[in-house]
Each structure stands twice: as structure tokens, then as C-alpha cells.
Amino acid sequence: MSLWTAADAAAATGGRAQGDWVASGVSIDTRTIRPGDLFVALTDIRDGHDFVAQALEKGAAAALVSRIPEGVPQDAPLLIVPEVLPALEDLGRAGRTRMTGRVIAITGSVGKTSTKDMARVALTGQGRIHAAEASYNNHWGVPLTLARMPRDSDFAIIEIGMNQPGEIAPLSRMARPHVAMITTVAAAHLEAFGAIEGIAHEKGAIFEGLEAIGTAIIPEGLSVTPILRDHADAAGAIVLGFGHEGMARLVQAKPEDGRLKCRARIAAETIDFTLNTSGAHFALNAVGVLAALGAAGADVKEAALRLADWQPPRGRGAVEDLGGIRLIDDAFNANPTSLAAGLAMLAGLQGGRRVAILGDMLELGPDEVAQHCAMADDPAMEKIDLVHAAGPLMRHLYDALPAEKRGVWAEASAELAAKAAELVAPGDIVLVKGSKSSKVSAVVDALRQSGQRPAPQQKG
Predict the structure, then answer these.
(1) Binding residues
(2) How many Å is the maximal CA-CA distance in the chain?
């Protein structure tokens, strides 16, 4: 498959192409590069130019560079530009311009990646689908996703994230979605934004990139929903609210053998669907997904049937049977909203003792101690039997719990990981949750190792 010819890539970036090459893909990592890829020599922790020779040896069609690296022949197949990241952005814009299908962009404080994956699975069978890989949602992830997009894609699903103010609008303008969805707004990255209202304004900026007469899918019932609606109105968008109220609302989510049997009302039509999870928060996002797909022109009933094939991604709420315990692996990220959802999921599962193993929630700003303490009063905590905790911030939640709920506290997640098998017992249902930088995922790895079971393979 031809994705980029040397001439097309040069025209898109204003660069100088060496050789008459044809690229079938775009890569930024020599560890996963495939023959025929255009290797993009980005500079991050390491300078990608140091890996150009290796990329070419592995069969890269060419490399996007700002200089000819040492050890690379002067006549090697290259696309030479002044700066690599702006050139990747230009390549992404060109990829978006030539694509004539429908683009859906997704952002939110919680659930971006799982919702993006949900939308991708739900669209199966309705044309050629292109979606962001993993959590490629930042200043290089969005243009990379667009640059990889086949021109004959019928639907594209773009994930857009942020850490600092002013990041979402430029990425949305690059993606130019027909439909933009915000999963929710929660206390994440508060250090950079100061208050949840600031986060809402940043999330609402996704609507600035909407195509003419685009559709905004916004969560109803939040304190900041009016802010999101104001941004959508300013963009001239058609606004669809989703949640427990709104044009797309969840009517029922009934747990049944580890699954959820759901019913929704979307634009006055009743839609039934099943999810392979017991997490009620996933059901709400599924309703938003169906509303978004309908706005993009997909068959909503067909998409609802396909939702049964979706699995929560690893580290984001997937449930697995492991050495006599049931493990909820939700160790990828954490803030008060997502922790509350994880605790509710744990509380709702039937079986043995319910155990939570929690790492610090990070980037919460000056109220981080109070926000950790407050989780001890979360309604779901009443049904949690035991809490193990790691990190100086999670110590505050631990200390706020009744004595009978306190398990083990450790300074770092590695200490809990070292004794993981001692923290649980056969029959337990175990939630592992924490911000990625808290490294509580080490506990998940240790539990899997002690249970002698490999990590689950993802479908789709």
C-alpha cells in the first residue's frame, strides 16, 4: 500500500526528498518499525537522528530528518526539512486534507483511550476505520496518527489529550473533526490549571477545530457542563448531551455475570447493548460513543451490537481471573473521579473479600492532600473490606480510613509489589489503581507473576 510517495511527502512538508521512495507507513520507533515505513527522527529523550541508520537497515523506505546523520550515506532515501516535528505536523495536516471520510475526535479527563477503542470496535463492518494507537494523543501523537491515515478511510478516530493550557485547540484544528466528544471533566492536571473550570475551558477548546456544522458531544450533569456548552455554541456546533440525562442517556446498566446489559435512549430511539465489563462508567461513555457515531453517519444499531466485542484495555479496568483472585487492572492513571469509578466497580462485583491496592493520585494541585483524604468518604468505600496503599499522598487516605479497613501502607509501590502475594488471599476481588508515575502497575505485574498467568491478550 502506498501511503506517501517521496513527491507527496516533499510537497506536504516543503522538504527536499532524496530518492524516489514510497512509504507504506510512518514510524517514530525503530523497535516497532516495519519494512516500508517512513521513519520520523523526532527528538525527545533521545535524538531520533541517532537511529536513522538502524531504521534504514530494518527496511525503512526513507527517513524524515533535519540533517544527514553521521554514518548515513549522503544519497540515502531521506526527506530533509528544517525541523522534524513541524514537518510531521505538516504531514498530518496533508493526510487529513486528502481524507474524505468522517473524523471523530475524543478528549476528556478520564476514559479517552478506552472510549476511542470502544468507538473503533463499534464501527467494525461499517467501512475502513483508522484510529489512534495506544494513547497517541499529544503534540506528536495526533500528527503521527493523521500522517498514518489512509486516504480512503471512511472513519477516523483521533484521541486528543493535554497537560498544559493551550494544547487542545491546535491539535483539534489539525484534526478538523466532524464530531468532537468530551468524556468528562475531572480534577486532573490541576497543578497546571488551578481549578476544574480551567480544565473545562481547555477541554471545550476541542470544538474550535470542528468542521462547519459539526457536532459536539458533551457530558451532562457536571458542574462545568455549561462551560462546555458555551464552547460548543461559540463554535456553531450542534450540541448533543449524554449521560443519565440529555439527548443520549443511559436508561439501564444491569450487571450480569461480569457484564453489563445496557439500555439507552438516543435521539428518542431505544438502543440495547452489552459491555464486557462491570464498570458502570464505561456504560456512560458507550452512550456518548453511540451518539458520536450516529452524528458521524454510522448505523447506531449496528454499532451497538458491536460493542459486545470491546474489551477494556490493559491497565484501564480490565478484569481477569488470576491465581484464585479476580483482578481489576486499573493502574494506568488516577484522579478522584476515576478512582471513584474504580471503587464503584470493585464494590459492585460479587464474590469474596474486596481489596483495593492504591497508589498516589498525582498532579492534583494544592488541594492534593484533601482530595486524597476525601476518598475515604466515597460511598463505595463502605463495601471495600481492605485497603493497601503506597506513596506519601495515599498515606492521607489510608490514615482517614477506619482501622479495620487498613491493610499495609508503604512509601513506594515497589515495596507492595515485593509482598504482593501476601496482600491478597484466594477468593479476593482486587482493584489496583494509581497514577502511572506512582508505578503501582508493579503490583499488577507481581500479582500476575505470583498467579503464574500471563497478561491478557487484547481483542480487536
Answers:
(1) 108-114
(2) 71
